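Contributing new records

If you add data, match the layout below exactly. Sequence lines come first and carry their own label; structure lines follow with theirs. Keep one chain per record. Anything else will be rejected by the validation script.
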Amino acid sequence: MGEVAVKYKIMCDPDFEGANADVIAGAMESMTSEVGVVQMVETKPLAFGLKFVEAHCVIQEGDGTVDAFEDSIRSIDGVGEVEVLEIGRL
């Protein structure tokens, strides 16, 4: 099986008190998953002082692996929306 490169845009959950893009980025850098790895994490400005996290990940190709990896991201405290910006095979 091959691998898939995925770039994610991760937003803070507005309903979670204390949600912070920098904290989420730190959690992403240390995140472990059986189906993929996080290659690079950046905190970027969005608007009006809001920030989002952009993560570049490499995930094993297969049925449900991307969904399982996204569930790992969503399990981080303070994560709201997870959006795929780019995806491609390696």
